[in-house]
Amino acid sequence: MPLIVTLTLTPSLDTATSTAKVYPEGKLRCQAPVFEPGGGGINVARAITHLGGQATALLPSGGPTGAHLVELLQQEGVTVDALQTHDWTRQNLHVVSDATGEQFRFVMPGAALHEDEWQQLLTKIAQLPAGTLLVLSGSLPPNMTTSAVTELLQCARQQGLRTIVDSSGDALKAAVAFGGLELLKPNQSELAELTGQSLEQPDQVVNAARSLISQGAAKRIVVSLGPQGALAVDAEQCIQVVPPPVIKRSTVGAGDSMVGAMVLKLAEDAPLADMVRFGVAAGTAATMNQGTKLCSKDDTEKLYQYLQQQ
């Protein structure tokens, strides 16, 4: 099985707590905080580990917050390759109001990456063995432009890596423009923006995904459809998987759990149908948990078996 490496350029130490009620100016006395690793690629690596696989989380890490983040990942059994950086890793804050059940998410800007640090990250990627599945997930540091995405993908291509991209905005556009991706996971609105099409009918979504595939953007595209599941498309097939009926408690982490599960199936050279079913199962399993918990192996396997029978 090929090596799986996830890259998170803007990792975070996520702090979650709750308070009786959120209101301005007064002191909001909170419960003891819970600390968790955060960032797209980091959560993909965590999901893969939760599902019984192995993945290395490659990330910049700075200051005490970065050290705490790395420690939490190691406690979960995730293999970590951390590059020490000058700027501290950001710390986000999630607060739940007990009175209303509302969640307030305060997201800080990612730490800047200095040029020498960026070059060190590229060197790490250039040292990965050919055939490695490299997952690029999350946002760019505030001081970096989309040219960094192109440089990163060029480095991966030269090394013979198979890249999976789950991003948004200009970074996503840059990845699609570069092309040659193993897997791309946009949502429906992102796919519409990428193709300049109005995607109001199912066949329009399929045709839009196929147009990107025919242009060489990616071998496979899985379009997230929210409550309607996901639509997986390659040059020959089109498969929609609708999530099984469950009680949903939170959608946080569902997308990263889905990507992690699909990457595991890619590593096994599983068929497209199995890949997207396992992905939807893991994403659905994550929604069954309170707060920010990712998918569990038991829930994912049960939901996957259910979807296999549909």
From TrEMBL:
Transmembrane segments: none annotated. PROSITE patterns: PFKB_KINASES_1 (PS00583), PFKB_KINASES_2 (PS00584). The keyword Transferase applies. It comes from the Bacteria. Residues 21-296 form the Carbohydrate kinase PfkB domain. SUPFAM superfamilies: Ribokinase-like. Keywords: ATP-binding, Kinase, Nucleotide-binding, Transferase. Coiled coil: none annotated. GO terms for molecular function: 6-phosphofructokinase activity; ATP binding. GO terms for cellular component: cytosol. It holds the Pfam family PfkB. Belongs to the carbohydrate kinase PfkB family. This is Phosphofructokinase.
